[in-house]
Amino acid sequence: MFKRRIYFPLFFTLALVAAFLGACSRSSPPAANTAATAVADTQSTQSDPKAGIEVEIVTPQPIEGSLTATGKILVTEDRVANIGPVNEGRIVRLYAGQGTLVKKGQKLAELESADIDSAEADYLKALADLENAKRTSAAEIKFNQETYDRTKLLVEKEITPAKNLQQAEHDLEVSKANGANAIESAKVAVTSARRHLLILGLKDAAIDALATKKNPGSSVFSLTSPISGIVVERNATIGATVGPDANLFKIIDLSSVWIDANVFEKDLGRVRQGQVVNVTVPAFPGVTFSGRIILISSVVDPETRTVNVRTEVSNRDGRLKPDMFANVEIVTAAHATTIAIPLSAVLDDGGQSVVFVADGNDYKKREVTLGIKSNDRVEIVSGLKEGDKVVTKGNYLLLEQGKAGQ
Description:
Blueprint: H1 2-27, H2 31-50, E1 54-57, E2 60-75, E3 80-83, E4 89-94, E5 101-102, E6 107-112, H3 114-156, H4 162-199, H5 204-208, E7 220-224, E8 229-234, E9 241-242, E10 249-252, E11 256-264, E12 276-280, E13 289-300, E14 306-314, E15 325-342, E16 347-349, E17 352-359, E18 362-367, E19 369-374, E20 377-382, E21 389-393, H6 395-405
Helix pairs in contact: 3-4
């Protein structure tokens, strides 16, 4: 009975102590665990802002100055052809349609024309008159030459008086002059008739073949392309009768194009002929077309205070189309020893241009003054020096964290 009374209070006391210690352990973690958790949290906070940050060491390097403007793509004036007949005719054949690529001299259509029939007849008559003039002149000269030779022989034998020789000589010279004049007039007529046929659209080979053509019949002449290019318009149907005022085909050569851009007059001193121009168009993002300035207008637009600057750009693949809008960058100068950084490193902070510079394990915001821009880089006039490590990626996150900490 005594032992039972002693053991029970002792057991009860030990249970109370164990319960108290258990409650303390749940409410207060060990110091070692608390310290480890704090270190882990600190490391996570420090690593998050730096995730994805890239830096570039500032060094002097060449950068090209440039001017930017908007422009419009045009077809060069000497690479456009409007083609139609120079006389009335009826279309009998068509060889090209809208979108057809043609070479210089390629046949586009054939037409029948009564005007050509008449012109061919005039040409053949002129050829016949020329041959007749040659034969007549030769016969006259031959006759007078023989008369002169015979009279000279008779005078030498004193059979006829000397005045007869003078008359024979006169007749010979007159026949030579008349023959030469007749032949020359006939040649002029042939040249004129041939020229008329050329104007009507016949080629030299076709005209030369007329002399041997036995049955002229209805004459057909061809319309050919004076340039290589693409047919952008065709206003012709088989059987239609068209006149000299008809434009049946329009062909443009897009192997090179013009781009007209407007440059402010204040920047005109930096622009000159021959400068390199980089051109981009919305239709082909990321693609740059290169050209050179070929013309600077002598007239200033009084309303916009701009000057038209024309660039010629090679367009062999035909991607640049007339009337497309284009962004023009005129390369104006090159600086050999300037500090330039990527445009991505510069941020706008309340109207001020700022960058972040690595300083040990920290990043400090620094205000900079910008200079000329070229492609994806910009000149830094002040605010950075050689050897600085400027943040080029992740700087926007640093800026936002700085604002949040204010």
